[in-house]
Structures are given as structure tokens and as C-alpha cells.
């Protein structure tokens, strides 16, 4: 969702501090589709910041100091010589601010809805209607912010996302092939926790490193990412989150644009233990066909016997045909070392 295409692949060096109790350390900052990715010099990911929730705390002074909204203890400093990155971030923050919905209008709509609810009395459909309305009006930048917030809480169990510099181009290539050219940074690989895969609001797909390291075919992680995207298309992950949280979550989101951190933490824990629920077989096979991927490779990775995934094997759109070359051998080897 990057607003300015010329900044999509911008990188810079800076000083990052996770909290006020720790020293600043030198890091590499990368500007992605909707996030700032902060890595240490060897390439390990230290933090993902949603651009929708980044604040510059010192106006136009240099070094430029940024922090996540609501967490001034975690800071990123960009000094002299990094003018291009500073200019790029500032322009993106201004563009995102212009796109935010006017809170006064949202409060007016909410107020009208509440008045109608009081007039109608005990209206059974109001909670579901409010949740549906909230999911409908939340803009993409806010969805990405919520997804990053959930990921931050999940990493307490999964560990920090893996992203060595050598593996990043291969992961981006796989993401573009499966999810589309505008979503190169949408796949996040974690070292543990998630059983195999998950999807979050904002188009984020989380993969366990085991489905990359334990198989010899890049079609397997591609298949997992594709199925998670089909699930997200079938059931809006934001609507699903709102359905499983209190009505106050929807009220706060639609009036203030914020989700309580405790709510994000609790729902992130639910996602880590949620039972796998496969999407509709017809939609899944159609997605594999569009991506020119073998559904059999994914099916046998899910179930070595193929018994529980037989429809994916029998309906494989690439059966007897040559599928897409997802990654070259060299790219696949580099991707398999993403968590090393």
C-alpha cells in the first residue's frame, strides 16, 4: 500500500532502542509496503513498525526521531546522510494522515446508530450490525496496523520474524507469485509457535519456518500462503476478530480508530491455538490454478497419506502439466536459510 512508489525499496542505517532501559544499537531500516522493517547488521529482524502508527517526535530536527504511536520508549533515530529515507518516511506519514477517515464523521454515524438502537428498544441485530459496519469502514492502513499489533504479541510465543538479507529477495518473489505484485512484503516467517500458518488483518500471512526447512519443494510454502489468502478472502480476518471480541472493541475502533492492547494480546493467543479450518475446496483449487501451482504438493505436506486432503490431490489443476517455476534452486536454498 506504499503511497510513493519511488520509496518502495529504500534502506538506511540508524540507531534503534527497544525501550528506555536499553542502549541504542546500529540497525538497518527498510521501507516496505506498509511497514518499516528494522534489522540488526547480520540481518535478524528486530521490529516491524506499521507506517500507520509511526510518529516523528521532534518535528524537522536532525537526527529525526521516530517511535510507534503510544510507545515513545521505543525509538529510531536517522541522522545526517539519511535524508532520502527521512524525506520518504515523512512524505508517507503525511499521505497516510490525509487518507484517515474524519473522526467527527465516524462519531456522527455511530451516534445516529445508537439513537436508532435506543428508539428500537432491544434490537437483537445491533451487535452484529455494528461489528459488520466497523469491519466495512476500517481503512487498509488501520487494518495493517491491527495486523502488525497482533503479530507483535504473537512473537512473544513464536519468536521474532526471520529475515536474513540473502533470503529476503526469494521470500518477496514467492509472495509476489502467490499473493500478487503489490504484496511482496506480506509473508512473515517465524521460528516457532504457529502450528504451520496463519493470516492476519492487513493481508499478512505468517508461516512457520518448518514448512520451508522440512520440504524440498518451494510449492509447499507457496501452497500454505495461498490457502491462508483464500481463507482471508472467504472470511474477513478483521470481521472474524471483531466477532470473537467484545462489542466494546468495535465501538472503540469505530469511534477512536484504536483497539485496546489487551484485546490484541488475547486474540493473538487465540490465533496461536486455533484449530485449522480449511477453506472451500472449489475456491482453493481455483486459486491454485490461477497461481499455476500444484495443490498435490501442499496436500501431501499437510497429510503424508493424502487421506484427509484427497480432494486437493484428485482435483489438482496442475496434474499432468508443468506448474510455475516459483523459485530457482539457488533462491530456494537461500530461502531455506531464512532463520539461520
Report on the structure:
Keywords: Membrane, Transmembrane, Transmembrane helix. The chain crosses the membrane at residues 108-126. With 340 residues, this protein is of the alpha+beta class. The protein folds into two domains: 5-99, PH-domain like (Roll); 141-336, no CATH class. The chain has 14 helices and ten strands. It has helices spanning 83-99, 103-120, 126-137, 140-158, 168-179, 210-213, 219-234, 237-243, 247-256, 261-273, 281-290, 295-302, 310-314, 329-336, and strands spanning 11-17, 25-31, 35-39, 45-50, 54-56, 64-68, 75-78, 187-190, 197-200, 204-208. Helix 4 crosses helix 10 and helix 7 (219-234) crosses helix 11. The chain is globular and about 60 Å long. The model has no long low-confidence stretch (mean pLDDT 87).
Question: What's the helix and strand layout?
Answer:
Elements: E1 11-17, E2 25-31, E3 35-39, E4 45-50, E5 54-56, E6 64-68, E7 75-78, H1 83-99, H2 103-120, H3 126-137, H4 140-158, H5 168-179, E8 187-190, E9 197-200, E10 204-208, H6 210-213, H7 219-234, H8 237-243, H9 247-256, H10 261-273, H11 281-290, H12 295-302, H13 310-314, H14 329-336
Parallel strand pairs: 8-10
Antiparallel strand pairs: 1-2, 1-7, 2-3, 3-4, 5-6, 6-7, 9-10
Amino acid at each position: 500500500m506504499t503511497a510513493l512508489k519511488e520509496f518502495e525499496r529504500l534502506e538506511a542505517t540508524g540507531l534503534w532502542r527497544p525501550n528506555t532501559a536499553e542502549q541504542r544499537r546500529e540497525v538497518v531500516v527498510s521501507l516496505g509496503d506498509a511497514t518499516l522493517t528494522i534489522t540488526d547488521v547480520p540481518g535478524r529482524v528486530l521490529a516491524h513498525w506499521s507506517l500507520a502508527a509511526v510518529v516523528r517526535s521532534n518535528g524537522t530536527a536532525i537526527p529525526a526521531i521516530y517511535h510507534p504511536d503510544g510507545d515513545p520508549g521505543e525509538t529510531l533515530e536517522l541522522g545526517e546522510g539519511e535524508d532520502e529515507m527521512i524525506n520518504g518516511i515523512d512524505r508517507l506519514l503525511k499521505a497516510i494522515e490525509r487518507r484517515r477517515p474524519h473522526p467527527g464523521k465516524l462519531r456522527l454515524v455511530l451516534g445516529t446508530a445508537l439513537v436508532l438502537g435506543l428508539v428500537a428498544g432491544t434490537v437483537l441485530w445491533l451487535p452484529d450490525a455494528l461489528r459488520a459496519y466497523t469491519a466495512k469502514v476500517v481503512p487498509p492502513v488501520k487494518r495493517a496496523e491491527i495486523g502488525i499489533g497482533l503479530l507483535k504479541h504473537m512473537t512473544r510465543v513464536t519468536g521474532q520474524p526471520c529475515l536474513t538479507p540473502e533470503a529476503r529477495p526469494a521470500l518477496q518473489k514467492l509472495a509476489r507469485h502467490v499473493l500478487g505484485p503489490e504484496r511482496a512484503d506480506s509473508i512473515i516467517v517465524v521460528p516457532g509457535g504457529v502450528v504451520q500458518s496463519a493470516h492476519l488483518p492487513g493481508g499478512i500471512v505468517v508461516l512457520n519456518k518448518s514448512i520451508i526447512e522440512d520440504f524440498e519443494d518451494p510449492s509447499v510454502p507457496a501452497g500454505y500462503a495461498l490457502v491462508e489468502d483464500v481463507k482471508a478472502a472467504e472470511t474477513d480476518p478483521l470481521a472474524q476478530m471483531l466477532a470473537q471480541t467484545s462489542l466494546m472493541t468495535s465501538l472503540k475502533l469505530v469511534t477512536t480508530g484504536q483497539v485496546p492492547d489487551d484485546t490484541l494480546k488475547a486474540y493473538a493467543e487465540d490465533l496461536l491455538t486455533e484449530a485449522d479450518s480449511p477453506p472451500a475446496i472449489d475456491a482453493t483449487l481455483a486459486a491454485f490454478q490461477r497461481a499455476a501451482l500444484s495443490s498435490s504438493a501442499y496436500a501431501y505436506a499437510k497429510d503424508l497419506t493424502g487421506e484427509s486432503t484427497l480432494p486437493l490431490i484428485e482435483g489438482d489443476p496442475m496434474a499432468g502439466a508443468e506448474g510455475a517455476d516459483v523459485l530457482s534452486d539457488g533462491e530456494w536454498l537461500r530461502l531455506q536459510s531464512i532463520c539461520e
